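**Sequence, structure tokens**
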Amino acid sequence: MPDIRSTPGFLSRFLRSRRGNVAMMFALAAPVVALIVGFGIDLTRHQAARVAAQSSVDAAILAAAASGIRDLDGMKTVVESYLRANAEPGVQQVNPGYTVTVTQENATQMKVTLSGDVNAFFGGLIGMAKMPVNVSAVAERGAADAVELVMVLDNTWSMSASAGGATRIEALKSSARILTNALMTEDVDNVRIGVVPYAEYVNVGTANRSAAWLNVPADYSTTSTPAPKVCTQVPVTTTTCTGGVQGVCTRYRDGVPETYSCWTTAQTCTTTPVVPARTKESCTGGGNPVTTNYRWYGCVYSRNSGSLRLNDTRPEVRYTGFLGTSQTCLNPILTLTDQKSTVISAINGLIINVGSYKPETHIPSGLIWGVNVLSPTEPFTQGRAYSEGNRTPRKILVLMTDGENTLRYNAADGRHLALSTNATTAASQKSATNKDVADICVYAKNQGIEIYTVGLSVPSETARSMLRTCASGDDHAFDATDSASLEASFAGIAASINAVRLVK
């Protein structure tokens, strides 16, 4: 039987039949394809309108929150006026009947919601003539989140210098009060502030002597018994000096120049026996016993186990308190408190020396104790637990200094020692101390701590760069030159903290 596919005309008839089927299928599918494409256009228009509405509502709520208006009707008026005048073009696609609602979330947070719809030109064919648009934003005024702030303040001897009209320490007190007054207002009750004065060391407070995180040896006294008095006869001599030039010399204490009388050119002196020769009695030893008292004034060394001086990990590794015959650390730390009067009192009581003690500068010790104040773990536990994104609480550290590091860390016992008299060695030691500052700043920021830095007449570009790098951003670093600009810096920090911002 012959194969029908081999008969003449079969192929042409088959192709004509297939083309007809394809044409029929296209004819049937075309409306569906057109509907899909059209609905895609509707979706694109809807998405553009929603994005534009969200952006416009974000801007409108910030405008309302920044206006200072407190009642909801007044804030709603600001929002609606802003949307009419400044809404992004895409919002025009939202039908004019959209509604705006303003609600008060809490004492310092407000919420704006825009609800409306967009016409669906093709969606109507499938029963969806309108597509809903619902967007909202929440803004806060100032310190709506709980704020825990510590001021790490330079109390070294260099703060005795002039800041233009006042000493640097007095200018610092005024500036710190400005920040405190701006944050601890009557209508805000969730701000807590601590103060860490620092110089060569930090004073953790003698009341903490028996704390588990601290190891302090017992106070003690030593009594020296003088050697027996021994007297001998010695020749009487006379000393004659000639030449020499007496002038004024300068020495530096923590970067502050001090002048004193000195011989700029040495004299030539000759000692000879008197004529006629005679003797006199010269005695050594004797006298009363001398008692020296060693006590703890609250001063602590840095932790010298590994890199623990740079972080607050392993709180079981104790700090070491050291004894002295006189005080070599200044005001004690004020831990976090919500009592404004307590903070102001601590600021007003700041000192820069005790007696003849004129302290040098070791910034890392101030920084790490600032971290300790904010930390929820020992040594101090007043700080709330860290939270993701630093939202609640908002932890802030303000570091102020008027100079550069003048001390180095001693790994053997955690002491802070003077830099070497050799210039090359001293530069290397100062660089190591500066690196400790940088490492602590990195650690703190990794914990979600926001850092502001304020330099006052800092003479070294290296030190100024260190402060800029330590800060959480260029807008968090301030460089003051006198008392007025120092106060402006602290006011700027307050304004930044209190700035209106979106939270949702």
The first helix runs from residue 10 to 66. The chain has a mean pLDDT of 85.
